[in-house]
Specification:
Blueprint lengths: L1 H28 L18 H4 L5 H4 L7 E2 L3 E3 L5 E3 L3 E2 L2 E3 L4 E4 L5 E4 L2 E11 L5 E2 L6 E9 L4 E11 L7 H4 L15 E2 L11 E7 L7 E8 L3 E4 H8 L18 E3 L2
Length: 259
């Protein structure tokens, strides 16, 4: 009787050890969820750097974006060579903005380096300001080079009375709920979203959302694009605020193309 009892005890312990090992193995393989962040309150921009170690640059970085574009140094900069092709309207709500994933094959060349267009997305109001003035919205075209360097073209959007037809496919199809892009026959051409005049102001900054990675080349076009009040309101019905406040320039070079 005692020997049988001893065997049962050994089996019981072995089963429990095996179960604990399996659970720990599952815990080790589970990917941690990224911290939740927002644009207001305790998870807003003032606290991003405290939400996770990976977000530390949001608080400690000295080359952060956006900034106020004020008193740039006027120089003769090389033109940006845009080579944008039409794409399927791969539009979706990622929980922080409305974004379009751009089909492969579009790019720009800046300072003899090609940057492939990955996506574009919106902020309300504008993140960059011009001499302290914010615009209704801002559009960011995110690019990456073969070496993994990021370059973002910023387009300031000014509110006006007339609807912008080039932007209509976007504002007429804004997804209200978070989700993945849905199959569509609609297309969009990023060329038509840019202003005709493409002089720009440039500086070295960061992503404007966590983890606030630095080393991003910013190219903010000097000429705003006009969209209607109704188009702005269509976006505001989904995201009332999704803009990071301006950050200190910290003596960074701010160069403006004088044509």
């Amino acid at each position: 009787m005692s020997s049988r009892f001893g065997v049962l005890i050994v089996i019981y312990i072995a089963i429990n050890l095996l179960t604990v090992g399996v659970i720990r193995g599952q815990e080790a393989t589970e990917m941690p969820r990224p911290p939740h962040w927002t644009y207001e309150g305790e998870e807003g921009p003032q606290h991003w750097g405290d939400l996770a170690i990976d977000f530390a640059l949001c608080s400690t970085g000295r080359a952060q974006s956006p900034i106020d574009i004020s008193q740039p140094q006027a120089v003769n900069l090389a033109d940006i060579a845009f080579d944008y092709q039409p794409t399927a309207l791969n539009i979706f709500n990622n929980g922080h903005t409305v974004q379009v994933a751009y089909d492969a094959g579009s790019s720009m060349i800046y300072n003899e380096t090609q940057y492939d267009l990955l996506q574009f997305h919106f902020h309300i109001p504008s993140e960059h300001t011009l001499n302290g003035e914010a615009f209704a919205m801002e559009l960011h075209f995110v690019h990456r080079s073969a070496d993994g360097d990021l370059a973002v073209v910023g387009v300031l959007l000014r509110e006006s009375d007339a609807a912008n037809k080039a932007y209509a496919p976007l504002f007429d199809n804004l997804p209200a709920e978070k989700g993945d892009p849905q199959p569509t026959e609609l297309t969009i051409d990023a060329n038509n979203l840019l202003p005709a005049e493409r002089l720009y102001t440039t500086y070295s900054g960061s992503l404007t959302t966590p983890p606030c990675t630095q080393g991003v080349r910013w190219l903010v076009l000097q000429t705003p694009v006009e969209i209607s009040h109704e188009q702005v309101e269509a976006f505001a019905q989904i995201f009332e605020l999704n803009a990071r406040p301006v950050q200190d320039q910290n003596n960074r070079d701010l160069l403006s193309d004088n044509g």
